[in-house]
Amino acid sequence: MTLETNAALNVDPLLDDPETRIVVCCGSGGVGKTTTAAALGLRAAERGRKVVVLTIDPARRLAQSMGIDSLDNTPRRVKGIEATGAAAGGELHAMMLDMKRTFDEIVEAHADEERAEAILSNPFYQSLSAGFAGTQEYMAMEKLGQLRARDEWDLIVVDTPPSRSALDFLDAPKRLGSFLDGKLIRVLMAPAKVGGRAGMKFLNVGMSMMTGALGKLLGGQLLRDVQTFVAAMDTMFGGFRTRADATYKLLQAPGTAFLVVAAPERDALREAAYFVERLAAEKMPLAGLVLNRVHGSDAERVSAERALAAAENLDERRIVDQTAGKEEGRTGTSPTSPEGSPEGYPEDSEGSEHSPDDSEDSPEDSPEHPDSATATTTAATAFDQTADDTSVDRLAATSVDRLAAGLLRLHAERMQLIAREQRTRDRFTALHPEVAVTEVAALPGDVHDLAGLRDIGARLAAGDTPTGAA
Amino acid sequence: MSRLQVVSGKGGTGKTTVAAALALALATEGRRTLLVEVEGRQGIAQLFETEALPYEERKIAVAPGGGEVYALAIDPELALLDYLQMFYKLGGAGRALKKLGAIDFATTVAPGLRDVLLTGKACEAVRRKDKQGRYAYDYVVMDAPPTGRITRFLNVNHEVAGLAKMGPIHNQAQAVMRVIKSRETAVHLVTLLEEMPVQETLDGVAELRAARLPVGRVLVNMVRPTLLDAPALALARDASVRPAVAAALASAGLSGATKLAAPLLAQADEYAERHALEHAQRGLLADTGLPLHELPQLTEGLDLAGLYTLADYLRGQGIGHGTSHGTDPGTGHGTDPRTAPGTAPGTDRGTDRGI
């Protein structure tokens, strides 16, 4: 089925290499990017590195899984790291990007007190820093630059913002740069300054018209707010620019590794392919693809088709049994079993009340906890009541048949899912056979603690096609 | 009857797909809907298997019963020029502004202006009437930003109206806010029956309510069919059942059944765990008191036919005036209609607020 196989991505050498200083996890929303970043951070820490994980808007549960009730803009040390022996000395710190706080800190650090006050109280600034589209991307880059500059950690694992377009953070510094290079900013700041130059009279007229138009559009008061803001930020813009450029270069440096995270779904892998191409164009070093939530089966030799056919065999026998049971009730003749009815499996009598159609029960209608003792008792009672034949064995055989048919349908669903995932992966492989891949088996539930993260880390490192695990 | 249908949801929940299915479902009986994309990803074009959508309203699908679905991918830059043209007749000046970088500034850097333009354009489509005074579109369905950003996105005009205390932008922002906060608008959240998306949905509902934005329905996507019911699961947990299962498998014509029973029962364990988790998540969603709708996971993945299937499920659940015109939505799409959760009675537990 697979046309070509991608090389396996081995994360341990990457995490162990002291030359690796930054790992960036990127990918579209909902693919487990933040969890992957946290799991990598934990694994690296337990292998002896001093790690900080920068998360962007993590689910509360993820913060809790690292034993931290809520993450904020300051790195917090995560307790319970099992770094012993050669790995002793490993540490994990975690933090969450606070856009407004990060922006405020920059202002406070780079402007004198009076100017900082003017900026912080400007309504335009307040809206901008509270995080409209785009600000998060700038601030993520800014924070990464800061963490790297502090040089307190030997590995920084970065999660990227949950933008629909996972690439926005790459564009942020450039966009800021082009804005700062633009003429607009000069118009906004001081039309008089531009017009004051010799031979610029014509331009001056144009500029006045522009500010006039902007004033008309924005309203005079907002334009004044914007102008005040830009003027106050003026001295800082150069710094912004320099740092944005520096961070961008940092991302291209050999110490940086990008991991594209995806799930084996069409949209997620399409974004991943796009990202791989974009990283290449930007000369950013791609380490590989993390494919989360991959399904496998230990019974792969039974195809979906065979499983469904076998399930039908079992159903048919039961339906015939039921019909026969009814006839038996009326006529007293013994039913003829369909082909394949095995020896030692007595026919059912009055059929259980569970027809194949029972599966249409809406989930709310089914008993609360399928695994609870109550459910078992209820089921058993139901069987007793319907058993006019009182042959518990025969009833049990029917319910085993029902179970077996259900197991086969479940397996067929799994096999169809595996096939679909394989098709989407093949499409990616055909486009990018050069990208190393590690696969992480799907888990039935979410991660709740360090042990869960550790398990994901182990799966990331094992990286081969999962079997069995859901 | 809300005419602006905003569809949000956590990344990966199939928000765009559900928005498209909703637009199809609402377009029955000769109605006309507009499906609006605001994030520039061309997801709608990919879903409907057409080329990339330009910044213009274009018919992309015909609904059963003669309805029509139009689509529009809003380009913030063009929307701004549109807007300038409309309000200020700034044709030439608009181009000059673009050269200056002002358009770039306005659509990428300036706080919220981008979102103002996107919501403004959608509201314009909601209010637009033809010469006879009829609405141009019966419904406008917006494929909106994800749950984490939706409140801020919809509330942007409120913020802008506060920033620009007078002038045309102020007035425009106020007008948009009136539509968004009225009964004309319903904000739906798409989720999966998994912990993180459900938590994000609950947070989103709380945020929307705190901002007094009209929350509509919760749309649970990719619901898997019930393949093992409670008695079967109870039996599967009984370790002594394995030989009997193996015998049943063998009798059904499978070779090596003894070795097959264990992995199949292991898969049942995982299923049970997920099933219990899904049940708990469903309970959390029900606690919001919002109407809940369920859409099945399509086993063959999503294609255009699958989109029509999902629209049929929505119609079957009373969306789009409840006329499911007697077709069996699952037929031919690889979904067993009997086991599909969406058709289960009692799934829609809320009062009918009208979608």
UniProtKB/TrEMBL annotation, chain A:
Task: Output compositional bias ranges, type Basic and acidic residues.
Answer: 314-330
Instruction: Return the annotated region ranges for Disordered.
Output: 313-375
The residues that cross the membrane are none
| Entries under CDD domains matching the protein | ArsA
Q: Which segments does the entry list as coiled coil?
A: none
Where does the ArsA/GET3 Anion-transporting ATPase-like domain lie? 20-298
Instruction: Give the protein's recorded name.
Output: ArsA family ATPase
UniProtKB/TrEMBL annotation, chain B:
Specify the domain of life of the species encoding this protein: Bacteria
Region of interest: Disordered? 320-355
Q: Where are the compositionally biased (Gly residues) regions?
A: 320-333
What is this protein's record name? P-loop NTPase
The record ties this protein, via Pfam families, to:
ArsA_ATPase
**InterPro entries given in the database record:** ArsA/GET3_ATPase-like, ATPase_ArsA/GET3, P-loop_NTPase
The chain positions of domain ArsA/GET3 Anion-transporting ATPase-like read 5-180
Protein source organism? Streptomyces beihaiensis
